Automatic annotation (TrEMBL), chain A:
<keyword id="KW-0067">ATP-binding</keyword>
<dbReference type="InterPro" id="IPR027417">
    <property type="entry name" value="P-loop_NTPase"/>
</dbReference>
<protein>
    <submittedName>
        <fullName>ABC-2 type transport system ATP-binding protein</fullName>
    </submittedName>
</protein>
<dbReference type="InterPro" id="IPR003593">
    <property type="entry name" value="AAA+_ATPase"/>
</dbReference>
<dbReference type="InterPro" id="IPR050763">
    <property type="entry name" value="ABC_transporter_ATP-binding"/>
</dbReference>
<dbReference type="GO" id="GO:0046677">
    <property type="term" value="P:response to antibiotic"/>
</dbReference>
<dbReference type="GO" id="GO:0016887">
    <property type="term" value="F:ATP hydrolysis activity"/>
</dbReference>
<keyword id="KW-0813">Transport</keyword>
<feature type="domain" description="ABC transporter">
    <location>
        <begin position="6"/>
        <end position="229"/>
    </location>
</feature>
From TrEMBL, chain B:
<feature type="transmembrane region" description="Helical">
    <location>
        <begin position="145"/>
        <end position="167"/>
    </location>
</feature>
<keyword id="KW-1133">Transmembrane helix</keyword>
<keyword id="KW-1003">Cell membrane</keyword>
<feature type="transmembrane region" description="Helical">
    <location>
        <begin position="112"/>
        <end position="139"/>
    </location>
</feature>
<comment type="similarity">
    <text>Belongs to the ABC-2 integral membrane protein family.</text>
</comment>
<keyword id="KW-0472">Membrane</keyword>
<feature type="domain" description="ABC transmembrane type-2">
    <location>
        <begin position="31"/>
        <end position="255"/>
    </location>
</feature>
<feature type="transmembrane region" description="Helical">
    <location>
        <begin position="37"/>
        <end position="56"/>
    </location>
</feature>
<feature type="transmembrane region" description="Helical">
    <location>
        <begin position="68"/>
        <end position="91"/>
    </location>
</feature>
């Protein structure tokens, strides 16, 4: 059987006394998009950089395309997009991509790649004069130019404007369609939900949940609406069917959970009428990945 | 929108192609950088012209350019192999370029080979320009260029080792300041323009062990006095090269 794109078992990484990764295990299927989701400092970049061969693990097993990450033959088979930097600031971006293409046996045409990412007009612009979004696209282009089997993207859309973000998403979709395995890290729930076949949520260096985006959000639906903050929900709760829950989170946003159906909807609107509450943006929807994420990793800032 | 065939077709290019591509990029970066050109071309040529024309320093008998030219050639080697390479590599490390290149099929050995080839290529240009100007100023070199070549190569190895040692261990700003300071100090007391005999007898033996003094002294004995390969100077340079490259290979940090 073909080995997974990435297989990690009980990975441990320490920096001095602090443990960044604490017994993390995950597996990324070949030909699929796997998103690693987590708050800042959860261990996303450390995990990816160990897979890329930049850092050594302090414990556990890591296999990339079935091989130890330090194996030199992986450099041609794996494409890497760093979180930042990596391109000489004075080098023109067309020149950089031509250089990168020379390292590979069957590279993509640098000019075609520039065009695909909307950078044709900037081929002669030094990297340091590009905007943040343009620089990110150059890094993305460098990751795929060698036609790799597996691509690691570390926060590929951080700081991108909406157009650039969509261009990145489309490229990830095309990679997947062509059978390339993709492992990406992100904070953006919509990105993970939209792009990935599998989501791994990590926190404090451990996996706290994993599965397909829909298995993580579950089938359960919620009724949501916006209204003035600080409403007393006691009366609503007594009127709702048993087993329902109502909460205000965050302020001014109300969520009703339970058997969401016509009866519950009628109860809520009747209560609104009695209280003189105008409910805005009333909707019935499934939990989002963001809800799951915040439930698992907490709301406190870090 | 352009459709790209992203179907996996991985494979490394042949090593010579990768190394040549990287060498070309390194050469272009060096020739495009104004500060580097100032250091590697303009300052050496100005010193050559200025000190050959004006009697600013007593250099002993014979045309002044015969004394100055070998010193300036040595300075040119130091400016490219040591100062320029240290600063450029230090900033490549800071900007994550070395890290990023580590994720390509170009191996670290390949990268170092490319850097060396680029330094040698720039030195060829420097030697051509400086020799041309010196000949125009009336320089009549004695001795065989073939005896000077091993000195230049050993000097390149020694200065590259020292430059990479700084670039791989210090912060980029510290490398920038340090490499320029060392350049100035070695320019002043390595026999480039001021003859070693001008220094007090007590410090001369120490100064003569510096790589720049070995290179200037060696080049002068070949090109001015017509000697064969000066063994002592070659040995000093080989020693510096061996020690600095060994320490560099143990301490160099790529990130």
């Amino acid at each position: 059987m073909e080995s997974p794109a990435v297989e990690i078992i009980d990975l441990v990484k320490r920096y001095g006394r602090s443990t960044a990764i604490d017994g993390l295990s995950l597996s990324a299927t070949r030909g699929a998009v796997t998103a690693i989701l987590g708050p800042n400092g959860a261990g996303k970049t450390s995990t990816v950089e160990i897979c890329e061969g930049f850092r050594r693990a302090d414990g556990g097993i890591v296999k990339v395309l079935g091989l130890d990450p330090s194996r030199p033959e992986l450099r041609a088979r794996v494409g890497v997009m760093l979180q930042a930097g990596g391109v000489p600031p004075a080098m023109r971006c067309g020149e950089w991509l031509r250089l990168m293409s020379r390292f590979h046996a069957h590279p993509l045409d640098p000019a075609a790649l520039l065009e695909r990412l909307g950078l044709t007009g900037h081929a002669r612009t030094p990297y340091r004069r590009l905007s943040g979004g343009q620089q990110q696209r150059v890094s993305l282009a460098s990751a795929v130019i060698g036609r790799p089997e597996l691509v690691f993207l570390d926060e590929p859309t951080a700081g991108l404007d909406p157009q650039a973000r969509h261009a990145c998403w489309e490229l990830v979709g095309d990679l997947r369609a062509c059978g390339v395995s993709v492992v990406l890290t992100t904070h953006h729930m919509d990105e993970a939900e939209k792009l990935s076949d599998r989501v791994v949520i990590i926190d404090h260096g451990k996996v706290v949940a994993e599965g397909t985006p829909s298995s993580l959000t579950g089938a359960e639906r919620q009724l949501r609406f916006r209204a003035r903050p600080g409403l007393t929900l006691d009366e609503l709760l007594t009127a709702l069917p048993a087993g329902s829950a109502a909460k205000e989170s965050p302020s001014g946003h109300y969520i009703i959970e339970g058997q969401v159906g016509p009866e519950l909807l009628a109860t809520v609107t009747a209560w609104c009428a009695a209280e003189g509450v105008t409910a805005d943006d009333l909707s019935i929807e499934r939990r989002t990945l963001e809800d799951v994420f915040l439930e698992l990793t907490g709301r406190e800032l870090r | 929108m352009t459709t790209l065939d992203l179907t996996p077709a991985p494979g490394a290019a042949p090593l010579p192609r990768m190394v040549l591509a990287q060498t070309g990029a390194e050469i272009r970066a060096m020739l495009r950088n104004g500060e580097q050109l100032l250091l590697t071309m303009i300052i050496p040529v100005l010193l050559l012209v200025g000190f050959s024309a004006a009697p600013l320093v007593d250099v002993g008998g014979g045309p002044r350019v015969n004394f100055i030219a070998p010193g300036v050639l040595a300075l040119a080697v130091m400016s490219t192999a040591f100062t320029g390479q240290a600063i450029a590599t230090g900033f490549e490390r800071r900007y994550g370029v070395l890290k990023r290149l580590g994720a390509t099929p170009l191996s670290r050995t390949g990268l170092m080979l490319a850097k060396t080839l680029a330094v040698v290529a720039v030195e060829v240009i420097q030697v051509a320009v400086i020799s041309g100007v010196a000949l125009a100023l009336g320089w009549r070199p004695a001795g065989s260029p073939l005896a000077a070549l091993p000195l230049i190569l050993l000097g390149t190895a020694a200065f590259s080792g020292l430059g990479l040692l700084m670039a791989g261990t210090l912060r980029a700003e510290a490398t920038l300041a340090g490499a320029n300071l060392v350049y100035l100090v070695l320019l002043g007391c390595g026999g480039v323009i001021f003859p070693m005999s001008k220094f007090p007898d007590s410090v001369q033996p120490v100064l003569e062990l510096l790589p720049i003094s070995a290179l200037t002294g060696g080049l002068r004995s070949v090109l001015t006095e017509g000697a064969g390969l000066p063994v002592a100077a070659a040995a000093i340079l080989a020693g510096w090269a061996a020690v600095s490259l060994l320490i560099t290979s143990r301490t160099f940090r790529w990130e």
